[in-house]
Amino acid sequence: MNHINEKIFYALILVIFLLGTNAGFCAEKIAVKGISGIAKLDKNQFLVVHDYKSSQVGSRLGVLTLDKHSPTSYETINISQWGPITAPSDLESACKIPNKNLEYLIAESGADKDKSRVFHISLQQNVDGLWGATYISSYEFLKDANDNFEGLACIEKAGQEYYILLGERGEGEKKELGKGKILWAVVKLGVENEIRQEPFKTQEFSAPHPPVKKKQYKDFRNISDLYIDKNNTIWVSSAYDPGNSGPFFSTIYQLGTVNPDNTPPVDLMPQKSCHVEGIKIEALGSSWSRDIELSIATDDENHGGIFRQIDPSNCWSNPLP
After folding, report:
1. Quick one: average pLDDT of 7-17?
2. CA–CA distance, 108 with 105 (Å, rounded to integer)
3. pLDDT value at 20 more than 60
4. CA–CA separation, 125 vs 134, rounded Å?
5. Is the pLDDT score of 1 beyond 60?
6. How far apart are CA 299 and CA 147, in angstroms?
7. Shortest CA distance to 312 belongs to which of 240, 208, 177?
8. Are 262 and 272 in contact (CB under 8 A)?
9. Residue 48: Cβ-neighbour burial (10 angstroms; 0-12, 13-18, 19+)
10. How far apart (Å, rounded) are the C-alpha atoms in residues 143 and 51?
11. What are the φ and ψ backbone dihedral angles of 302, each rounded to 5 degrees?
12. Which domains does the chain have, with CATH numbers?
């Protein structure tokens, strides 16, 4: 998210949830910080992350609860102690750790030029239904100066070992489209709540058929988030962001598949899906309906944002040619 004079920017997130599979829907506006990443808690609740910088005060986590019969609600979550480290800066993504009850990884985009961090947290709900979170551990890794990590996914490998995938945005230059990068590594969640990590391996790719002209290259991001579905398909959103007033657009596509038993675990075969005008998708995740594939959240800067389900085979705009 771009910050105007480093002030905190609050977006009106337009939450739309379908009352059925056809025409009926209900829409509400809730004042929350622009959403940068989502991960499902249960059928109708989502953990969301916000991209406050280290110099800014505010809750970096929240829970969005959707209900067909009650008003949509948003609850901030504060972690008072981040162990021996400083609070996260510029969180952009989150993923649920498979077969771990309410345990998640959240990742910084890369506020520092040469390093970034991934955090292991757990969520709890008290008898009154209010959410809290606990810091468990974190690890720091080196990165290239221009890397910005916009997506994070977790896949179980064996025992306490997991693959984590990071998506680097791959922003372009004036005369050349950039290339996105998928990074993966094996992490082990130790008994002392320590994250042990292998070095990251990397594979580059280009978003399929991005609808951009040459003058738009520098503002096009190959990855704005990523999500792995129950069939191990890697879904990716990309976005065009020329500034706080837009105009924005996004694409959703299948990047390939992941198999933790293979080396490498990713098989990248980018396939076009759909193009959506007028919004900047920054969060991608599972939906809360059986017949809809994905949920998205946008950060449309001066124009607010939305959170809703979306069928990538039937987007608001026409599919890409």
Report:
1. 47
2. 10
3. no
4. 11
5. no
6. 20
7. 208
8. no
9. buried
10. 19
11. -65, -15
12. 10-308 (2.115.10)
Report how far residue 207's alpha carbon sits from residue 87's, in angstroms, rounded to the nearest whole number. 33
Q: For residue 213, what are its two tokens?
A: 């002209």
Q: Are strands 180-189 and 201-205 parallel, antiparallel or unpaired?
A: antiparallel
Give the pair of three-digit tokens for residue 59: 């809750």
Tokens of 53: 């910088």
User: Are the C-beta atoms of residues 124 and 77 closer than 8 Å to each other?
Assistant: no
Does pLDDT of 6 surpass 70?
no
Which amino acid is residue 124, in one-letter code? Q
The enclosing H or E element of 317 equals none
- The DSSP letter of residue 217 is G
Q: What is the pLDDT of residues 86-102, one digit of tens each?
A: 888 899 999 999 989 99
Quick one: which of 73, 76, 75, 74 has its CA closest to 52?
76
**145 within 8 A of 113, measured Cβ to Cβ:** yes
The pTM of the full predicted model, rounded to 2 decimals, is 0.88
Q: Is the peptide bond before 88 cis (omega within 30 degrees of 0)?
A: no
Per the CB < 8 A criterion, the answer to whether 228 and 155 are in contact is: yes
Tokens at 20, concatenated: 């059925």
Cα torsion 135, 77, 101, 85 to 10°: value is: -10
Check pLDDT > 70 for residue 25.
no
Phi-psi region of 170 (alpha: psi -120 to 50; beta: other; left: phi over 0): left
Encode pLDDT of 112-161 as tens digits: 777 888 999 999 999 998 999 999 988 888 788 788 999 999 999 877 78
